[in-house]
């Protein structure tokens, strides 16, 4: 613990961040593609919800192979999204409302259309050759050409992570897709070029960065083969050799020293594959001068199959949630780090469909249960667009052709190649897509009951780039923000109230202490949060069953101040003894202090 008396409050700790997935947010010119003016148009909506900062997924020039995570020019905006002037306007309008902008910094790789890569691949002696990771082929005993090692591609359904370049007769590393070559961070000129990109955006008025897979930038330099962990595959997960590699901390400290320390920024590093506590604290520890916080994948990996397979199904229950949340909450408190809180983003299915029940009967309750959890844990809250409405996954009936994500398309192709005409296997694959594909969170935002959910203007020739979920007539922002029914609260209004309450009691919810409460239960996850002056308890039933829960005597509930079954701020429930919780019911209680 840091010495007492040190002020731990920071604007980026108690701020609420809202992630905009720009292609699906709001289309203002009728081309079916969301745009920057669409974001600017909705700032009042976000401000009303309680948002302080927006993080916009990549809007830079891009061939859109991976929805902008393949950047071909870091200093320009893709015409589909608008122009640099539109971004200046967005920043101006944000500032007027005392809000901030975070850009998505994708610098583990670029697009294969970036001028750096075009130069790099033009010849072996090009000055930028070394800005990417090039290696000669290997040959097997029969003289067949093989990639330099056995690493598998992340979005390419277990193909090789290396792509062959005919012209210069070498392989380049491309961990995500062939169109996303990995940058070589060993090269100091490349690092300086990245620093320059960061300064460009900070000078323009952005306030920080979400850093895409930033823990993959340092690779073990002899590029060893990965252990064979997936026997059925030729290529193997190589994360041991590229996640949190040997020079990661050096590179992050350099970014901090040369760029971030000159500005007042918020930084969050997206970090898949990291579980080690020392490693996490080395990045987010308050004395470390690296990043403010990271996105840990523990909660969103909860239903991965053993071996970390995401496109698979795996059972979980409230005990897993309790173990994961407790570990991260305690780690940050005990070792002076900082958490980010998220259950949804553009790479994950919708949280209400995944963790609760998205049927018409329980969708509203489930979305509020998750809100109750997100707004009462310690750390910086991230809300993903549509989460505040309880938007659902794609319905099971949709044809696989409605899925647009490169990862899903590769998966579906692979499954069809592997099991041609095997109805059962292909149905299983479709089920997995419907439950886990990234597309689930990428459908257009549901603004209203108007055609195309109000996402795109009817005057346009083309419809939305991705199909709108059919339930938009009932699940939409207009209905939830303006349809005020006395005694009822929409998911949106519940979020609004919860965020306000969180800020009013930030010493507890943002900065306070944490302990799980009661016995481990497969259904109920309960925890206490407290400061010197106040204490609260959250009791969350993560099951579709009615449950009796014994309130531990020392919790000391004085009043149930919120719950997802009622709009009341004084919920009539027992304060000691046995508490009956309905399906997906969550309660927040104010407790005696000490
Ligand atoms: O994601 C990185 C990542 O490793 C995962 O979230 C991955 O996309 C997921 O497990 C696959 O199902 C980031 C971006 O958020 C993602 O959209 C990009 O595709 C990826 O990096 C490459 O830039
Ligand atoms: Ca548009």
Describe this protein's structure.
The mean pLDDT is 96. The chain is globular, with a radius of gyration of 24 Å. The protein is built from 17 helices and 22 strands. Helix content is 27%, strand content 16%. It has three domains: 16-110 and 186-397 and 474-482, TIM Barrel, CATH 3.20.20.80; 115-173, Oligo-1,6-glucosidase, Domain 2 (Oligo-1,6-glucosidase, domain 2); 513-591, Golgi alpha-mannosidase II (Immunoglobulin-like, Sandwich). The protein has helices spanning 11-14, 36-41, 43-49, 84-96, 115-120, 188-204, 239-242, 248-258, 277-284, 318-334, 351-355, 363-374, 406-418, 423-436, 477-482, 491-504, 506-509, and strands at 16-20, 53-56, 60-61, 73-77, 100-105, 134-135, 138-139, 145-146, 162-165, 170-173, 208-211, 266-270, 293-295, 340-341, 380-384, 513-516, 524-530, 535-541, 547-551, 557-563, 577-581, 586-591. The protein has 594 residues and is of the alpha/beta class. The protein starts with 10 loop residues before the first helix and ends with a strand. The site of calcium ion has 6 residues, from loops. This is Glycoside hydrolase family 13 protein. InterPro entries: GH, GH13_cat_dom, Glyco_hydro_b, O16G_dom_2. It holds the Pfam family Alpha-amylase. Keywords: Glycosidase, Hydrolase, Maltose metabolism. One of its GO terms (biological process) is sucrose catabolic process.
């Amino acid at each position: 613990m840091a010495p007492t008396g040190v002020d731990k409050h920071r604007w980026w700790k108690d701020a609420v961040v809202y992630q905009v997935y720009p292609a699906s947010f709001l289309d203002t010119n009728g081309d079916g593609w969301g745009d920057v003016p669409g974001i600017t148009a909705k700032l009042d909506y976000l401000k009303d919800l309680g948002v302080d900062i927006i993080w916009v997924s990549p809007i830079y020039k891009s061939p859109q192979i991976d929805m902008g995570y393949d950047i071909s020019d870091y200093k320009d905006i893709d015409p589909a999204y608008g122009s640099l002037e539109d971004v200046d306007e967005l920043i101006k309008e944000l500032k007027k409302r005392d809000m901030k902008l975070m850009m998505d910094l994708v610098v583990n790789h670029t697009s294969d259309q970036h001028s750096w890569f075009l130069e790099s691949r033009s010849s072996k002696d090009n000055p930028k050759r070394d800005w990417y990771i090039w290696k000669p082929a290997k040959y097997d005993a029969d003289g067949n050409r093989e990639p330099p090692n056995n690493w598998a591609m992340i979005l390419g359904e277990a193909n090789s992570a290396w792509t062959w370049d005919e012209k210069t007769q070498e392989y380049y590393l491309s961990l995500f897709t062939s169109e996303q070559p990995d940058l070589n961070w060993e090269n100091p000129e490349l690092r300086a070029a990245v620093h320059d990109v960061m300064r460009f955006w900070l000078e323009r008025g952005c306030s920080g960065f979400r850093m895409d897979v930033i823990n993959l930038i340092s690779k073990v330099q002899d590029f060893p083969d990965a252990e064979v962990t997936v026997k059925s595959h030729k290529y193997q997960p190589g994360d041991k050799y590229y996640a949190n590699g040997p020079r990661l901390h050096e590179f992050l400290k350099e970014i901090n020293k040369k760029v971030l320390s000159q500005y007042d920024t918020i930084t969050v590093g997206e970090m898949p594959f990291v579980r080690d506590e020392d490693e996490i604290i080395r990045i987010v520890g308050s004395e470390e001068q690296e990043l403010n916080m990271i996105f840990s994948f523990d909660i969103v990996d909860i239903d991965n199959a053993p071996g970390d397979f995401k496109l698979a199904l795996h059972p979980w229950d409230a005990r897993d949630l309790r173990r994961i949340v407790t570990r991260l909450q305690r780690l940050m408190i005990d070792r002076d780090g900082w958490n980010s809180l998220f259950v949804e983003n553009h790479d994950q299915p919708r949280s209400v469909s995944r963790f609760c029940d998205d049927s018409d009967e329980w969708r509203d309750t489930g979305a509020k249960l998750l809100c109750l959890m997100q707004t009462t844990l310690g750390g910086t809250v991230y809300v993903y667009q549509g989460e505040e409405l309880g938007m659902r996954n794609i319905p099971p009936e949709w044809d696989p052709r409605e899925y647009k994500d490169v990862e899903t398309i590769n998966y579906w192709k692979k499954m069809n190649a592997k099991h041609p005409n095997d109805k059962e296997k292909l149905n299983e694959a479709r089920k997995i897509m419907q439950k886990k594909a990234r597309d689930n969170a990428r459908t257009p935002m549901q603004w209203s009951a108007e055609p195309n959910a109000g996402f795109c203007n009817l005057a346009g020739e083309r419809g939305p780039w991705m199909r709108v979920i059919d339930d938009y007539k009932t699940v939409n922002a207009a209905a939830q923000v303006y349809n005020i029914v006395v005694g009822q609260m929409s998911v949106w209004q519940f979020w609004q109230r919860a965020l306000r309450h969180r800020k009013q009691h930030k010493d507890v919810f943002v900065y306070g202490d944490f302990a799980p409460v009661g016995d481990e239960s497969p259904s109920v996850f309960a925890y206490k949060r407290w400061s010197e002056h106040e204490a609260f308890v959250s009791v969350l039933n993560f099951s579709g069953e009615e449950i009796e829960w014994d309130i531990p005597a020392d919790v000391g509930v004085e009043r149930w101040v919120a719950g997802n079954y009622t709009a009341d701020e004084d919920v009539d429930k027992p304060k000691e003894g046995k508490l009956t919780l309905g399906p997906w019911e969550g309660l927040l209680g104010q407790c005696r202090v000490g």
